[in-house]
Write a structure and sequence with these properties.
The protein is an all-alpha fold. About 75% of the residues lie in helices and about 0% in strands. The chain is globular, with a radius of gyration of 18 Å.
Amino acid sequence: MLPVCAVTAQYNDELRHVEYAVEKYSQMLFRICYNILENKQDTEDAVQETFLKYMVKAPLFKDSDHEKAWLIKVATNISKNISRYNNRHAAENLDELREIGIRDNDRDIFELIMKLPVKYRIVLDLYYIEGYKANSIAEITNTSPMTVRKRLQYGRKLLKRELEL
């Protein structure tokens, strides 16, 4: 059995690591969850639940990219579950500002992306904003790399059509 001071030190180290992860990834996770949920309250719940699962499971990661991918996958799954629940229970959709860390010059394109179906929004965000490759996005979204590439291709076409209108 570990002495109390060793347990306390280990707890403090874990707490600092969680605080660091929250600070580093919360804005990115908020944006990804918002792409799926389209409202601030559910998005906040999804991000909070993601970090709660992170604290409870305390997974070990090979590196920060592995940690980031795990958080994105968990946040995406939680968001999809919330979305399914909302669709079944017909929750009222609040019209709100989408100020979630998007620069002013990117706001118009973000608004266009938000008009796309979820399956295109999420791959466009992960590819262009987060810099993931198709194979990594496929792992995160539980699809094939070919599906991701097709969704990127079709998502770009839909964006182009919107821009031409």
